[in-house]
Amino acid sequence: MAVSGFKNRIEKNLAPSLIIRLSEVDAPMRLAARAKRARGQRGSVELFFAFDDASSAYALITLAELVNQRDVDLIARPVVNRGIPDDPAVDRKRSYAIDDAVRLFARGGTELVRRTPIDPEATAWLAQWVADAPQSAALTDFTVEAVRLLWLTDGQQPDRERFERLWREKLGGSPPAAGDGLASNEQRMARLRMYETPAAWVTGRWFFAHERVAQIGEWLDRLGWEER
Amino acid sequence: MSSETIEFFFSFRSPYSYLAAPRAFQLPENYEVDIRFRGVMPMAMRGQSVPSQKRIHTMFDTKREANRLGMPFGPVFDPIGDGAVRCLRVSELAVDQQLEKQFVLAVSRAIWAEGVDVSTDEGLRPICIAAGLDWHACQQAISDPLIEARVPVFRFREQLLWGQDRIEDLERLLDAAGLRR
Q1: Chain A: nearest CA to B24, how far in angstroms?
Q2: What is each CA distance from A160 to A163, A167, A170, A171, in whole angstroms?
Q3: Domain B4-176: which CATH number of 3.40.50.1400, 3.30.9.10, 3.40.30.10, 1.10.1740.10
Q4: What's the ipTM?
């Protein structure tokens, strides 16, 4: 009885309270950021996102604007498979994400044009292109523009030729052949203990990116990557 | 009594519900609306699995949000199980007596910022009394049977808004409906 009472106290009181205390320890991350700057390196915001997810569209576009004024790179890591296994509310969440993104974009005066969910398989090829290409500012630029086309320009079915033209315009040449980029992104996301998109990893902390843009900015400030 | 109502879906096991509650109950001060409190059973008690990474992330994220809102967070005492059920049953009584604001704010603060074990009479009793409830009536309510959704959720007209960080969007809808006082 005493043992189960103590176990109960650890699970319900001591462990979660300890996690809350640990969440405020940030000295190692600030030191790592300082060391990175001393080596002349830039900061990074790694965004795990899905082209078919309206919340991801908002996160990608707003984070691109956030890092623009800082010595920070936005690393776009598309995924297709994500979420809590056997989640019974997947379809409702997909639909809700659109209603929510309409309101999030409206905060900045932007209209979300697409009002119907996209099947993840309908943009899986786009995710594969980005996942299998080397990281670069041009790739991030392509990714942001592709998301704008998908969500802010029209509600049409994703047209592969249109995105191939955009690829040639931004990066030149043809999109890469399928490799292991997507699987690698999904594995990294799982290793970082993130389970849903859009999730941003910023020097030791992760955030649900669409609803924590200001907090990501504050964390970058704290790490010393302030606006120029 | 206003003609418009916002339904506020709340779980005593949700730290985000705790963060939302003070601002949710404040809405009728600023808008021509009533808040209808709807207590719901925690996800984990409705057979839905909650991954450990979600539980840990929620603690980190809630602490950041609590700091931004100037609210205390931690030490906590997870009310899952008897604690959540007891709070839900007392909240029904509190609604009947129009004391839900007082009870919900007090008990959620006790759970999420003071580490009070509300599954015990010793933990719950002083909170009920401080909220203006009669403890014997609370004990009767606790022994009564009960009560779904992700929380906190607000429903206004046909729109659902999920999250303590969507109150600003709810306020925008209320403004657009011409309900600001």
Answers
A1: 18
A2: 5, 10, 15, 16
A3: 3.40.30.10
A4: 0.86
